């Protein structure tokens, strides 16, 4: 891990969505600190609805946090149209569904050139498009210029989307489930591409996924999110081989290659409009239900005291009273 100052830094970020018909607001992101350094790949993992996409959008300035702040390269984001447009050159979003993010009536060339045109690029557009396609592994690039999305495979479409993000030479990619819709074989190729881009271009990336295997293959660091908070973070080997938070353990236990019995979480599915008091995982926590937290003397804290916000610096941390009691 480097000690340089982070490229992107989020502190205390909160995003909520108003409830309908007087229902309480959904606290989709409920206090998150997260740093991403240049050239670092961070995987953000957690089950559906835990707030991954909302956090990713907040990091890109696509949604303004209700509290907290996001800074890029040491400067807090500004939310005027002009400031966001300038930010977009440096931090790009890659979406999960390549067919959804490509216009079927635009050629590959136009799809990739779009960003250059929006930003009034003054250089050689054709060379920039060819360079981006080539870096995304579509070679020779000229062969793809006049193709339409329907003429491409799923993997090639995802590469076009990545080329469209690369053409502006960003420093950070935020990839939301970048391979979820792809076949296993193509998935490996796209992951290899993301890793190569990090090595060749020094690109930092936040990869949002609910696939822990993907996190293992690609990331330096992992942040595990549960109900709007990061509950465990650290180097990928550490978190995935020696998880400390009961939620991380449960997520890992259901992987096909996991040793031992899978831990099936019981209790209500998490609802960001009704975040439990104390530890937000307490109603579903197998360590609390099984009496281990009680034996460690922390059961009261589990039910009554919020374990707090992890500091985002990238050092190994866990938001769990039981883990802090020295049990793991
Ligand atoms: N525009 C919105 N309006 C109201 N609620 C929303 C909106 N977007 C997200 N939410 C709610 O916020 C919570 C977090 O959603 P989010 O899409 O960030 O989760 P996620 O972790 O990306 O899930 P998935 O893995 O399914 O993509 C969910 O409860 C969701 O219903
Ligand atoms: S703080 Fe308690 S309830 Fe929360 S995860 Fe840890 S052991 Fe479980
Ligand atoms: Mg999502």
Automatic annotation (TrEMBL):
An example molecular function term from Gene Ontology annotations: ATP hydrolysis activity
Superkingdom of source: Bacteria
Residue ranges occupied by any ABC transporter domain in the UniProt entry: 10-252
GO biological process, one term: peptide transport
Transmembrane residue ranges: none
Pfam annotation, one family: oligo_HPY
Cross-referenced Gene3D superfamilies: P-loop containing nucleotide triphosphate hydrolases (3.40.50.300)
Coiled-coil annotated residue ranges, if any: none
Keywords, alphabetical: ATP-binding, Nucleotide-binding, Transport
InterPro entries on file: AAA+_ATPase (IPR003593), ABC_transp_ATP-bind (IPR050319), ABC_transporter-like_ATP-bd (IPR003439), ABC_transporter-like_CS (IPR017871), Oligopep_ABC_C (IPR013563), P-loop_NTPase (IPR027417)
Entry-linked SUPFAM superfamilies: P-loop containing nucleoside triphosphate hydrolases (SSF52540)
PANTHER family given in the database record: D,D-DIPEPTIDE TRANSPORT ATP-BINDING PROTEIN DDPF-RELATED (PTHR43776:SF7), TRANSPORT ATP-BINDING PROTEIN (PTHR43776)
Family of this protein: Belongs to the ABC transporter superfamily.
Name listed for the protein in its UniProt record: Peptide/nickel transport system ATP-binding protein
Organism: Streptomyces capillispiralis
